[in-house]
Structure formats: structure tokens, C-alpha cells
Amino acid sequence: MMMKMMMMMMMVVLLDFTTYVCTLPAPSSVSMQSVDMKHELRWSPLQAPCSTAALYSVQFQGEFELMVLNGSWVDAPECQLIPHTHCDLTFDLGSDSDYNLHVRAQCGSQRSPWTELSPPFNRRDTVLMAPEMTVTAEGDALQVTFAKLPLTAVVSVTVWKRGDELQAAVYSIPAEQAVLHVAALQEGAEYCVRARTVLDTRIHSGSTDTECVSITGRPDAAWKTPTTVTVTVVVMAALLFAVFWSAVHCRPHGCQTYLHKEPLPRSLEPDWDIQIPMSPEEAELCDPIHVSSASSH
What we know:
Blueprint (H helix, E strand, L loop, with lengths): L1 H21 L8 E5 L2 E5 L12 E7 L1 H5 L6 E2 L10 E3 L11 E8 L2 E2 L3 E2 L15 E7 L2 E7 L6 E8 L7 E6 L4 E4 L7 E11 L2 E2 L6 E4 L6 H29 L2 H7 L21 H5 L13
Antiparallel strand pairs: 1-2, 2-5, 3-4, 3-6, 6-7, 6-8, 9-10, 10-13, 11-12, 11-14, 14-15, 14-16
């Protein structure tokens, strides 16, 4: 009886030992790399022999899962049985709450224990980089263009005329806009720009290097005024030449044809016979008077 009990105990110990040996080790060096609101969980490759490719799965647990779903864990949809040792969780961690994260390995039918990230991750801990900025002058305006901005961020842009930084103007544009246009600037002046990315009043990136450009004015301003003056002078000279040539080369007959006088109105003609109508009585009172010259003696 005693021997049988000892054999049973040895079998249990051997079974536990076999189970322990066959269990895959849990992934190690689990860490979160978060830059510009892009969150990527990373871990070390499986340090155990595996007859097939080692696969990994990731789960997360946020405030909603913890408080409302009774502490349940949610599979990261894009990170189930993947061969890579990293997982992009940018669109899974959608709130500013703390997230618990863990990962496990699988080799064939064997699964490792979960390895949990410590401490929990909050996306407000992301590292913001200075934005990629391009500054150009377009006529009397500045155009500032940004690239690779975090989706939920705002860009704070400071613009000033060189030598007058105390009078700088500050503009805020959402990340989805990505372009700032500042018009009606002083022609011939040099304007400087720098920017930084902001998530809230406590989270912001460093500033970009200062970039300065000269305002050249509107594209047509350099030629519009002299061209207008030149055209005006040429037209006036052509008109004067035409008048002078006509005056010198005009023949009498031709000049009379093109420069003829307009006839006077009849009311202004000197030989117009004015007749005053008279009544019959007035006519009878008027006798013709005949005047004869005296004969010479």
C-alpha cells in the first residue's frame, strides 16, 4: 500500500514536470513605442525551439472593458496569431484612459502564458515630434505646409516680420487642414515662421527650426506698371505720327473730301429774305414812293 502511494506521487510529480517542460515561455521585453499618436506594442522573439513558426496574439483592456464589461479583455483585431513581434494599436486605443495590454506566444498547439505590459499605457504619454514644415512665398502671401501630423493634434504656427518678433502673430490649425495661408504681407519684407504640434495645454512638441522667406509681391506687379507705361507711349506716338503724316501729305482735293465744311443753317445765311406779314388795312396805308434823281442843268 505504501509502495503504491509512493508510485502515484512520483507519477504526479513527473506529470507536472512534463507539463512544465512542454509549456512555452512567455514573451519577454514587452514595451510600448508611441510617437506622434502612433502606438506600437513590441516584444522579443520566442526563446524556445518551435517546429513551426511562432505566432503571437495581443489583447487590451481599457476603462470601458474594466468598468462596464466586468474586467474582460478584447482581442486586438489586427494582432491575432501574427508572426511579427510588434502590433500597431493606434486605432484600438481610442480614449485617454489607461490601457492594460498583454501578449502571448503560440507554437503549434502549445500556448505560452500572457505577459502584461507594465505599467499600463495612456496615449497622452505619446512623444510628439516637431512637425515637418515647408514655407514658401506666393506673391504677397506666405504658404506654410505640414506633413505627417497626428490626427488629433493642432499645429501652433508663429509668424513675424524679421526684426519685429515681439509683434508676432500666432495661428492654430487642425491637423487635417495641414496648410496655413497668410495674405496681404508687406512687399519686400522678410517674414519668419516656426511651429510646434500641440495635443493639449500640457502636451506639445519642440519647435521647428525658424524658416524665413522674402515677400516679392504679386507675380504681375514687377511688369504690370512699366508695360502699361510703354504701351501708352507707343500708342500716343503712333497717333501723333498719323496726324503729322496726314497734315503733310494731304492733297487739296483729298483734304476737301475729308475736311469739308458743313453748310450753315438757313437761319444764318445773310441773303435770307425776311418777309413780315401785314394785314390788308396796313397794306392800304402804304403807297409806293418813287424817287427820281434830279436832272442836271
